[in-house]
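In this section we walk through a basic example: taking a raw amino acid sequence and producing a predicted 3D structure, encoded as discrete structure tokens. The instruction is simple. Fold the sequence below.
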Amino acid sequence: MIQRRLLSLALFTLLASVPGSAAGATLSEPATWLRDYLRIDTSKPAGESEAASYLASLLHREGIATRLLVSPEGRTSLYARLEASASGPKKGALVLLHHIDVVPPGPGWTTDPFGGEVKNGRLTGRGAIDIKSLGIAHLAAFIDLERSRIPLDRDVVFLAVADEERGGLQGTGWILERHGDLFRNVAAVLGEGGLAKTVGGRLLWAGIEVAQKRPLWLRATARGRGGHGSSLIPSSASHRLITGLARVIDLPTELRVTAAAQTYARALAPLHNPKVGRILANLDDHVGPDGPPNEVGPGIYTLLVDTIQVTVLDAGERINVIPDQATAELDGRLLPDTDAEALLDRIEAAAGPDVSFEVLLTAPPAEPSPTDHPIYRAVADVLGRSGPVVPAFIPGFTDSRFFRERGIAAYGVSPFFLESKAFLGIHGPDEAISLDELDRGVERMRQIVATCVSTERPANPEHPVS
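The resulting token sequence is shown next.
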């Protein structure tokens, strides 16, 4: 009787781990974790704390100790560590990094953004792609190391952080400043920012992010005489702000091919047709005043310029009241070698004396992470089984910058090979991930991590990598 029950339990566990089993009614263990993770609203600090406790509870079930790291502003992050167990020399630790927080849902959703609903083979919710799914892939790989008991030649750290969407100063930034001792002898970090160019279910190439733009977030403020909306006040705060920002927006665009952009373009060159390949291989020779030729696509252009985007405007509350103050927030993304202070001087000069600027977030230049690093090679080895791999330069920024500023290699790695349309949900409505690709990606990450930290690489026939 006991044997039959054990056999039934084993069969149920096997079916639960196979994508699409039972006509799609049963989720795999990682998909169940992600569903419950998505149901926690982490667009607010209280949700970060709840989510960190949820992830900790999953680790505690496996007997893994955790630490909650809470910043002075009450932003909660989670830290757990597996110690190296191999008999040979101990190598530098590997950190698996993702962020708990998400941006607010915004309008346009057709499902509950924090419902974790399954529909048409996809799991929907804010964070399904950015970036809770990566966190669950890390968690599954981390727990698998504990379950399998394979010898580890590195410590492995699972790090789920708060505050990334607002710049990371109360998350990764604060953790490294306050708890730097937890990250001594770290060899490398695997985080977000990885790319996968997939068309029609076929991977064209995978990108391991090694370089990124830097933030320059600003708040612009203008002041003026307030009054009734019927008054004639041409130099009101709102008018001063609008005219000043218009001059900032009209600043001439300065295109520049940085070393990071050229390295990325050259890596992409062999993966395109000969004409585009020649352009990418010699980008410096093909960038004119209007940018590179149209054949290379808009993505390359973004990597050649500093961008300033006005994203938040705040002035009066009623149409018939002239406010005495108006503010705006600007999202700047700088090339790796841009002089941030010089650019801010240009912005202030263009806006004029009626507009003042406050720096909300900035970051110093940091060297790209090396491609001859053993962790990079291990990641490329696993991803390379599915298609070509290139070192990527991205227009966004991630918490990897905090580690690179300290001379620690950091790599953006996505184990999910998603079609372009899936990325429309990032910071938009109806964010969702395919359940099948979630399970495939979890397996890729499991193999990536095992390859990075042990010479023993356990097979899993239920989840092929490719």
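Looking at the output, two observations stand out. The two ends are 40 Å apart (CA to CA). The chain has two domains: 16-193+398-453, 214-258+287-362. In the next section we compare this with other chains.
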